[in-house]
Amino acid sequence: MPHNLPKCPICGKEMIIRKLECPDCKITIEGEFWVSRLASLSKEEMEFLELFLKTRGNVREMERILKISYPTVRSKLDNILKNLGLISEEEPKDKIRWIIDKLEKGEITVQEALKALEEDKDV
Question: Is the entire prediction scored with pTM above 0.70?
Answer without folding.
Answer: no
